[in-house]
Structures are given as structure tokens and as C-alpha cells.
Amino acid sequence: MSTSGSTYGDIHRYEPARESTAAAIAIVLLTLLEIVFVFMFTWGLVSGWALTADGNMFLGGLLAVVFIDLAFILAIYRKEFLPDVMVVKKRRRKWEDLYVRGEDVDGEQLEGAGVWDQVKRAVYPYYKR
Predict the structure, then answer these.
(1) Which of 11, 80, 123, 129 is deepest in the core (most CB within 10 A)?
(2) CA distances from 4 to 12, 83, 84, 87, 88 (A)
């Protein structure tokens, strides 16, 4: 579904999510696996596996597997259950965020008694708005 609106904030493209059953089952199974790995990591910490060199490496590996499994869960969820939406955004010129006016691109010379005000205006471009 697309719209032809080009004003700021219009939805340019909207594709609904697939919401497949296979993805839901995969997320449930990966979540159960995540619970098992978190339980093993917690059990290892409580039982003192980290006091030996091999146990410390094993706990580090378990922690890595926990986060990798979580990454797969979130990737499947994002791909299968979130819609693809493209919103029209306002395009800005390079200098627009830094300067108040286009003619101020080259900056100003610091001179005279009002140097501190000039520095404030250079650091905070929207100082007088």
C-alpha cells in the first residue's frame, strides 16, 4: 500500500507483517532455549564455576550464547512481526543545521569588544531565536 503524499510525516509505503506460524514457533523454541542457557549461567555463577580457568571460559561462552540467541529472537521478531513503514522526511541542506542563514556559511571574523557574543552565536546558532 502506497500513498502519493509528499508532505512531512506522510506514510510513503506500508507493507503489513507476514506473521507466519513457523516464525512464532521458532521464537517460542528459541525463548525456551534462552531460559535454559540463562538458568545454566546463573547456576554456574552460584556454584562457583568461575573460580577455575576452564569454568570461567565456560561461563563466558554461555553468556555469549545467551546474547546470540537473544539476537536471533529479536531478528526473527523484527522481520516477521513488525510492518515495513517508510515515512516522508524533510530533506535538509548540509549547512542548515549549523547556521541560521545560508549567507552565514563562511562564518564571521572575531573582532572588537563583542567577541564573547560572537563566540556564543557561533557555538549556539539558534541563540537569538
Answers:
(1) 80
(2) 7, 19, 17, 12, 10
Mean of per-residue pLDDT scores for the chain? 80
CA distances from residue 101 to 30, 68, 71, 121 in whole angstroms, order as listed: 54, 48, 45, 12
Separation between Cα atoms, residue 115 and residue 62, nearest integer Å = 59
Spatial separation of the C-alpha atoms in residues 64 and 69, rounded to whole Å? 9
Among all chains, which residue has been given the C-alpha cell 510492518?
Answer: 83
Q: How far is CA 104 from CA 98, 101, 111, 127, in A?
A: 9, 5, 16, 14
C-alpha pair distances (Å), 65 with each of 70, 85, 97: 8, 32, 43
What is the model's pTM? 0.60
